[in-house]
C-alpha cells in the first residue's frame, strides 16, 4: 500500500470516526439507546445508517493498521 493511500484512508477513517461519535450522541438524544427498546427494534429504527457507520469503523481500524505497517 502506498503512503499516499494510507494517509487518505487514515483521514477518511478519522472523519467517519467523528461522524460516528456525533451520530451516537444524536441517537441517545432521540431515545434509540433506551434500555427498554430491544436491539432489533433499534436496528430497524436506525437501519442502514448503523451498518454504514460500523463498516466505517472497520475502515478506520484498517487504515490505522495500514498506516502503522507502512511506517515499519
Could you explain the architecture of this structure?
Keywords: Membrane, Transmembrane, Transmembrane helix. The chain crosses the membrane at residues 47-69. Helices cover 83% and strands 0% of the residues. By secondary structure, it is mainly α. It has one domain (3-71). The longest helix has 28 residues, at 3-30. The chain is elongated, with a radius of gyration of 15 Å. The mean pLDDT is 68.
Structure, briefly:
By secondary structure, the protein is an all-alpha fold. The radius of gyration is 15 Å and the shape is elongated.
List the defining traits of the structure above.
3 helices; elongated; membrane; transmembrane; 72 residues; transmembrane helix; mainly alpha
Largest sheet: none
Q: Give the overall form.
A: elongated
Give the count of structural domains.
1
The residue fraction in helices comes out at over 70%
Question: What would you report as the Rg, rounded to the nearest angstrom?
Answer: 15 Å
Tally of contiguous helical segments = 3
Which structural class should the secondary elements be placed in?
mainly alpha
The oligomeric status of these chains comes to single chain
Question: What string, H for helix and E for strand, traces the elements in order?
Answer: HHH
Strand content: under 5%
Q: List low-confidence stretches.
A: none
**CA-CA gap between termini:** 12 Å
Count of β-strands: 0
Can you give the mean pLDDT?
68
